[in-house]
Amino acid sequence: MLSDKPTIFEEGQVLLFNKPLYWTSFDLVNKVRIIIRSTLGIKKIKVGHAGTLDPLASGLMIICTGRDTKRIDEFRVLDKEYVATLHLGATTPSFDLETETDNQYPTEHITEESVRNVLNGFLGDQLQVPPIFSAKLIEGKRAYEYARKGIDRILEPVPIYFREIELLTFNLPEIKVRVVCSKGTYIRSFARDAGLALGSGGYLAALERTAIGSFHVNNAYDIEKFQEFVVQMKQ
Questions:
Q1: Is the pLDDT confidence value at 4 over 90?
Q2: Strand partners, 65
Q3: What percent of the chain has pLDDT over 70?
Q4: pLDDT at 3
Q5: For residue range 72-126, what is the model confidence (pLDDT) as tens digits?
Q6: Which of 4, 30, 155, 219 is least surrounded, with the fewest CB atoms within 10 Å of its CB?
């Protein structure tokens, strides 16, 4: 039996989720929608996210429901914090693990001091070229549609901003960094650019989004806990 009284989700909720690795952003939004509709007997409800995460990334996503979907743009513009693992000494066409390595480079000359110096050089305003394996639009098509067909297309650099960059671990060929950056920043491109700046190569080996503005992944639902919460609402 369908509920006549609007639920809190129809009235509007801003929800924090920890997106699992390998899920698409659409997978998470769809799962949240299904849980709300099937558990609470709702025919239709608006559910949207305030910024995607790649399937090969985990971490924080903001999902809005009902009337609060109108607030999505408010959250999209917030700075993002990531913890990224960069693999140095190799490159991939996608700048991450979606594709196989295509070139190897030396790393013997790279020191912890040189890494810190290079990372500091990224602070502030930057122009960044997005990955060709991305959802950027080129003449009405997503860039990855061209890339997966082996068609070379040029993406224009876009202005971004790095507020904080902190080296967390140095264990070649991998380093782990914490990055706070503006919306529209591709950490995959940052991995590539950092490798180049170090006189080597680099790609993104792992990525977790830990914060969006003042919202932190430590306060986020995983999908199982959210389902338990919605079931308890019904009781």
A1: no
A2: 13, 47
A3: 88
A4: 46
A5: 999 999 999 999 999 999 999 989 998 999 999 999 999 999 999 999 999 999 9
A6: 4
Which of these is catalytic: 54, 68, 96, 193? 54
Domains, the chain, in order of start with CATH, read 8-77+214-234 (3.30.2350.10), 80-212 (3.30.2350.10)
State how far the Cα of 30 lies from the Cα of 1, in Å rounded to an integer: 22
Predicted model pTM: 0.90
Give the integer Cα–Cα distance in Å for 134 and 20: 20
Per-residue 3-state assignment (H helix, E strand, C coil) for the chain: CCCCCCCHHHHCEEEEEEECCCCCHHHHHHHHHHHHHHHHCCCCCCEEECCCCCCCEEEEEEEEEHHHHHHHHHHHCCCEEEEEEEEECEECCCCCCCCCCCEECCCCCCCHHHHHHHHHCCCEEEEECCCCCCCCEECCEEHHHHHCCCCCCCCCCEEEEEEEEEEEEEECCEEEEEEEECCCCCHHHHHHHHHHHCCCCEEEEEEEEEEECCEEHHHCECHHHHHHHHHHHHC
Q: Is 54 part of the annotated catalytic residue set?
A: yes
